[in-house]
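Async update (no meeting this week)

Hi team, since we skipped the sync, here's where things stand on the single-chain job. The sequence we agreed to prioritize is pasted below, unchanged from the tracker. I ran it this morning and attached the output directly underneath so nobody has to dig for it. Comments welcome in thread, and please keep replies under the output.
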Amino acid sequence: MVNSRSEQVRYDLAVIGAGPAGLAAADAAAGLGLRVALVDAGAGLGGQYYRHPAPELGAARPDKLHHGWRTFAELRERLAAAPLVDHLAGHHVWAAERGEDWILHATRGPEAADRAAVTARCLLLATGAYERQLPFPGWTLPGVVTAGGAQAMLKSGLVLPGRRIVVAGSGPLLLAAASSLAAAGARIPAIVEATAYLGYARGLPVLAGNPAKLAEGAEHAARLLRHGVRLRRRSAVVEAHGTDRITGVTVARLDARWKPVPGTERRIDCDALAVGHGLVPQIDLAVELGADTVTTADGTAALRVDAQQRTSVPGLWAAGETCGVGGADLALAEGVLAAHSVAGKPAPARELTVRRRRRAFAALMAAAHAPGPDWTGWVTDDTDVCRCEEVPARAVREAVTELGAADARTVKLLTRAGMGWCQGRMCGPAVACLSGGPVGRPDSRPLSCPVPLAQLAQQDGTTELSE
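Output:
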């Protein structure tokens, strides 16, 4: 039964993340006789992908906001009846350490009297991903949200970020976000996509092996066509306008390297902008544990796993977006495969096929939407690159040209870019590009989330804090 037990139990498997990969892994592992802790920072099951309205909002048809809602509903129903699964909601894991067993250290928020610890023989990371942002003048204005953030507002709060919303950036999430927003009543004057989609043409066999992905794209396209939404390819929002709130954006054509083409600028009025340039795997915990990573075709770092979803760290598995962004179907399949590996059972043939096809599609998608090297051409010196610490691009460029910084870490030390609340998750890719250093190198964060000092200082008998 899914519950919120907090007493110390030795689990066979701890799964961090209750999105598609985590849900599928917990369900499959319980079916194979393993005792499972499903640990997640959220209050309910579903993660970011299956985000849904709170019951008190009275949403009559939450399934209308999702693809694959039936899959989620079935998983949730099975887990509710699973006596071997404990759902530890509201537990944000900030560190993991390995001894005879894994010990996960989690905070339940600043109001909690103490921190929580979860002990398990094996550990599976299904922590998903977060959005990549490339800054531009005006991107900190109220009314500018991420593409996924706009979807989250709609899915969980049943609200829109505005009534006239430009959707911009790069990647398939733009079509999904625009489709959902339009269906909810928003006016979408344009989808501004930085690529030309020509990269997909180089992978026709991969596309043929993924008809469900083609059908999903066609469904979004048909809905957008019905709402009269225009797609502007090979273009980008290079400036947002407004004072107290966004009132419009300037859109420009891009060349093949993503450099704005002079003379192609056009203003579009709007009261909200949903913008994002793909997703970045959330791998903080694994990086601190020394797990090997790979750089994907779009320049992000993902965990390296073998055919059984095992990382390079003994006893540590990973599934879903942590291994490279590829969508819910892939995450579900990899969760099942990881559970079978932990249990020492043969891998199901169906999930093996899904993983092979979806991973190929993920690689094609990443290559098709990889940011061009000259996107920094739309970043003015006054543009804040690090929102948390309010570090402008000028400071980053001066650190490189005048102070000799050659990588993002040195820029961080000289400018404080990346030292704020988000710890570089929002500005990290941009700072790396502006510094001219390696892109795709994973960041090192000893604590994967903010932890109250009172909880951090506790000696609870399960571990000793290092000096």
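Quick observations from my side:
The longest helix spans residues 349-368.
The chain has 13 helices and 21 strands.
Reply here if anything looks off.
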